[in-house]
What we know:
The complex is a heteropentamer.
Chain A: E1 6-15, E2 18-28, E3 33-37, H1 44-51, E4 59-64, E5 67-68, H2 74-79, E6 82-85, H3 97-102, H4 113-117, H5 121-138, H6 156-169, E7 174-178, H7 186-201, E8 205-209, H8 213-219, E9 222-227, E10 230-235, H9 237-241, H10 244-251
Parallel strand pairs in A: 3-8, 3-9, 6-7, 7-8
Antiparallel strand pairs in A: 1-2, 1-4, 4-5, 9-10
Chain C: H1 5-20, H2 24-47, H3 56-73, H4 78-100, H5 105-125, H6 127-130, E1 144-146, E2 149-151, H7 158-180, H8 182-192, H9 194-199, H10 204-230, H11 240-253, H12 260-276, H13 284-299, H14 307-311
Antiparallel strand pairs in C: 1-2
Helix pairs in contact in C: 2-7, 2-10, 2-11, 2-12, 3-4, 3-5, 3-10, 4-10, 7-8, 7-10, 11-12
Chain E: H1 2-20, E1 33-40, H2 47-66, E2 70-72, E3 75-85, H3 90-103, E4 108-110, H4 117-124, E5 130-134, E6 148-152, H5 157-168, E7 174-180, H6 184-200, E8 204-210, H7 218-227, E9 231-234, H8 238-251, E10 256-262, H9 266-273, H10 275-278, E11 282-284, H11 298-315, H12 328-342, H13 347-354, E12 358-361, E13 364-367, E14 384-390, E15 393-400
Parallel strand pairs in E: 1-3, 1-4, 4-5, 5-6, 7-8, 7-9, 9-10, 10-11
Antiparallel strand pairs in E: 2-3, 11-14, 12-13, 14-15
Helix pairs in contact in E: 2-11, 3-4, 5-6, 8-9, 12-13
Amino acid sequence: MAMPILELRKLTKRFGNLIALREFDLDINQGELIGVIGPNGSGKTTLFNLISGYYRRFEGEIIYRGKRISGLRSDQIARKGIARVFQSYVLYEDATVLENITRCFYLICKTNSWQSFFNTSRYCKEEVTQRAEAEELLQPVGLAEFRDSLAGKLPYGYCRLLALAMALATNPTLLLLDEPMAGISHEEKGLVINLIKKLGDQGITIMLVEHDVKAVVDICPRLVVLDFGRKIADGSPEEVTTDRKVIEAYLGVEEG
Amino acid sequence: MLLLKSIRVHYNKREAVKGISLEVGEGDFVVVIGPNGAGKTSVLNVISGVINPSEGEVWFRSERIDRLAPEKIAARGIIHVPEGRRIFPKLTVMENLQMGAYLQKDKTKVERELERIFHLFPILKERTRQRGESLSGGEQQMLAIGRGLMAGPALLLIDEPSLGLSPLVTQHVAEQMTVINREGIAILLVEQNARMGLKLANRGYVLTNGDLVLEGTTAELVKNEEIRKAYLGL
Amino acid sequence: MKKVIPPVVGLILVLCFPLITTDPFILSLVIEAGVWAIAVMGFVAILRTGEFSLGQAAFMAIGGYASALVTINLGIPFWFGLVVAGIAAALVALALGVVVLRLGGIYFAIVTLVFGEIVRIVASNWQSLTRGATGLTPSAPSTIHIGNITIDFIASKVPFYYVMVVLVLIAAVVFWRADRSRLGRIFRSIASNELLAEHMGIHLMKYKVIIFAIAGFFTGIAGAFFCHFTLFMGPTTFDVWDSIMILIMGIVGGTSSVVLGPIIGALVLSAGGGYLTSALMVGMKPLIYGIIVIVVVVLLPGGLVDLGRYISRAPRISSMPAVRRHKKRGD
Amino acid sequence: MPPVAVWMDGLLLSSIYILIASGLVLVFSIMGIVNFAHGQLYMLGAFLIYYMFARAGINYFVSLIITAVAIGLLGIAIERGLLRPLAPNGLLPPVVVTLGLIFLFEGIATLFFGPAKKAVPSAVPGVSSIGALTVSNEKLVVVAIAVAVMIGLYFLVSHTRMGLAMRASAQDPYTASLYGVRRGRTLSQTMFIGCALAGIAASLMAPLYFVDPWIGLTPLIMALLAIVIGGLGSVLGAVVGGALLGFSGTFLIYYLGPWSELTAFLIVIAVLLLRPEGIFGRPRA
Amino acid sequence: MKKKLMTISVAVLALAVFLMLPACRPPEPEVATLKVGCIMPFSGPASPWGDAIKPQMEVYAELINEDGGIKIGNETYQVEMFFADGEYSPEGGSRAAKELVYDKKVSFIVGYYGDGFPATAAVTNPEKVIFISKEHPDFDPLGKHPYTVIGTPVIEFVDTQILAFVEAYPGTTMVGDLESTLVEPMLEKEIAQAKAELEERGIGLFSQTHPVGITDFTTYLVKFDEEGVDLIYTWAATGYVAMMAKQSAEQGYDWHLCQAGTMLDPYEFAEMAGYEAAQGTMSDWPCPWALKKVEVSPELLEMAGRIADRYQEKYGEPMRYMGGFGYGLQHMSQLFAGLEKAGTLDPDQIMDTFKGGTFDTFLGEYTLSGEKTYGSLLVFGYPNCLSKLEGYEEVYASEHPILEIP
């Protein structure tokens, strides 16, 4: 644990006159589970957009495993092992659930495009194993029985689960989860929480943006609180939830 | 004045609002609070007719208004100030205000309304010729509310006015809302910032996950520990 | 095994076609349809990454000119001319793709349309090379003698027919394999959701340029073949109308399959249209084309390929590929 | 400096490009699609003028107004009947339909009006001499009307309630609907205005040139070029692009002859390379 | 859903019916017939020419058949005409030729009006179908295209035509030449030759090229004015010449406008250009009965008259367009004269007869050179009979026949 896996240095993002994120600093260590919370519009999603390369023009620096990744394209960042699950459900809606997963194996394919083009036996074998892997990935999120239905026709909660499974398919080192629990049922929520915990046990570093503070507190040993584009707190759930600034950010300033 | 009877909303089979009933009286100031994703915005969208509820009824001044087109509802005096302000970026401040009065045919009334808004938000008067996109967040929020007022509403639905605003600006916007309400316009405020919402309104509803968990006068709600739990998950 | 039967039967039918009729009129209509089918396959392949090009005929023109020029000026045989044509068109597609594929959706369509006009204007003005509107007169492939067998491209259309069949087959196999292999998965990912695809590590530009260049390669070959078949290559041989016709053939044939739809579309509109020309009143042909396009788009978005499914009311999995309106992105 | 006649001609060509391009842009900015059949609407408008003014002898200005309205109504029919129902299916189906309409309209025109070139007599015959300079009255009137129409369009879009609604709806249809703007109506209004502009352009140009079923393509391509130069979605861009093409066209003809044609395209390529979104386009990516 | 299905079925049915249409053809006639094909544009912007010449050719064939037909050897043949749409493009020409040769089984193709003769000849040659057409730089009647004949030497006559125009206006000092980028490369050599010949007479020539499809020539006209041009020669099609006339008048220019082609309809031309502006416009006018220096055989002169009369009778309006006598009708007369002389239908013998033979045509007696004559190989002569527009009528202006064939 000599070096943090991800270092964010003075990240600032402006939209015209609006500053969505200002001078944001954060170090994340390998295997850490970090919850990022904050009221609506506090800059959480913007933060993810910067890390995942969705926005490429901003101030500050992002260093991943000692190398600067700010300014790179999303696909280059993904190639380095950073996977992202989007806030609203972003899926290949016109493909089946299974196909959604297999499409995410792009980065971990062992055969190249030519082998795939000529349908070599190695490629065929890989296809078969990938299919099996995909089915395996569907098991823990409980989507195995939906493998052949169109992703666009899935109930909302399942979409979130699928998105999670897809992020896992890329075999990430760092996982950015943007509100994986928004709008899903209680049982599903339990599923997701367990899953995230299990991933954490596997050593995957996870950054979790979530509104459901209860769930975040449940999962993450470390919380970062954003308000108005600034980091206002960073620490254990107990410290954070009793922090006056945090409470004010959420509930408003108390009288007097 | 406004009555919602067990409204349900589905997005893509997902139930976002699970049977909510709600009431706003004439000249009332009601707040709906709750964490994000609780379905607050969906409720406003149902009232203003942007989305149709899958179940339930909306009544306004003893007239059923669900299933009416948004412009029909706006014509009846329900004006929605949307979340994120949604100023028309390329229109000037003046034009943004004029858009608010789109359905208002009476020119003198529009003039009067404009006077009132400039009185309420003097900063807007200085910026009438600037484009909407050039305003700061707080100014945009004032413009959004001003634009809503231009329609001469009986009921103003305001969605998260504090979104992304600094506490100081939020404070200012809050004061203006109180002034507006005092002038006789009923307000249905949707807010995440619970303390501010509860301070301003006289009645409140608490939503989590599409369910109504609490309702009552703000005086009662302020003391309720449930709210803190709902928010911070403690 | 069942899956193999229809294509095999189809291929046998195609190969036996000259036994059914050697009528050069019918054969030339079918040969021309084959040429268009290749171009349409390219168009559909690009479309299936979510971009639609209105300048595909420009690549036919580039291929046609490239082949005509090298065969006439350097005396290179027709067969190498085809390859040169393909490479030239692919290189131009590569360069154009790098510049304009950044612009999504309708921008791309407009710019490719404009590109087609540029090619036409350069061809008609660069007289020292292209001889302007006078055009070039490439010749048919020279007669081949293999033992006792003589293949004469001038006396009969049948050799051309088989060359066309081979070219269509090669193009079909390449596009089909590309569609079925991982490349196809990548293209579908891009078409389905660019944002997600990019975040899954797919370099959008790279793959879009690749398919644009592959399509350009085959489209160029198609153009070269066509000009050696009709023995003429001029600035208006492949123009804006042809680009639009390629799009229309693609849509009418159906974009749900990368091979069958284009072939059906080209056969119906190019061969069928050519067959009808003399039977119709002036103005009827464009009118019918227009009506066919609108009827297909409104009632049968999957194209003619989807007709069977439509009539049997089986669930249709296909419709037109989603084409982005705009790139939405902050700065 | 080229002679005044060349300036005048540039002005004339600019007028036609601007009228057509701004109609296209207007429709695009609200509906998000380019109506590729716009040039054919122009062609139909020219035939209308021919039949009303040249054949039936209706007063030119009355014919012009009727043509504008008729083409506008045809635009509404296309928008309501074809484009609007297809809009939810993405960009491709409506665009393909407009491409199909090109063939449909050309077929109809050939079938019903015949392929021969038709002549529309000058509405304002004669020439005016100002010193050594001779300008046809027709061209003066055309430029005057085009300028008036563009000023009218500017006024309509920027100073009327309808224009405000159009602009608001183009920027944010959701919020506009909250304040009572009916999207469907705005779409129809925009299509009407955009297509009426094509009708006006046709009415202005028909007496200067001839009318046949194929006159739609060149103005369409020039208008598309103007739009690419000026930026998609900006009427100001269409005006600047159209003027650039119109004047550069005639000036370059004067100095370069036929290569002028290529030069116009080179301008477009330069714009695409340096500023892909066009001069007045919103930067993207 | 059902309704949608119905609509689809109807559409498919309609499509099928359309596809069946060409299959329903009348049975073959039993009398000996001469199948003559003709490729002209019947769709697209050039279609008015096809539409104008086709009825004239039909009338001619009709009259020949009424007179008993064409006597070739011992057999008399009725003439059957087949027309195909060449769309004025090489591909269209090629497609139309295929249709005529392969499908309609014609033995001759005449009156090709369009671009890309080589593409068309490539279809007719292997089938030994005799193809009479106009001239094209890549058109090689004795080499690559042995079964083709240049019926109208359009390119060669450029310099004599310019001379004819200049002769009609003796005071000319400067000729302006305005061509599209389409035809400019074709004419380059001829224009240079004309320039040299004009210079001998102390007349200058100033050439300009314009892009295809433009309708506004004002800038070019301004340049002509600056160069002091007083006669403009152009290959542009009638509609565009009308635009030049109109725009000249608008600029107040006063020069003679001369178009290389025939005027499609003098009335429409005058309407398009404006009555005043159109006056004096000169055109090619291959009108047999108006020829003054060339002698036409009495039978053909009579036939020309009968064609005009029958045309008037059949269509209720006078035959205004004379281009037929330069293209379709002329080619037919050339072909029939050759066939009667050859006395056989064998294509090789017919071609042998053509080479160096002398024939009566609508435009006088002409000799086909078997040798290089006017810079090309196998060619009929052509008199440059020119007209001038007066009122709504074309009237005789001048004539410069190509007579000397070695």
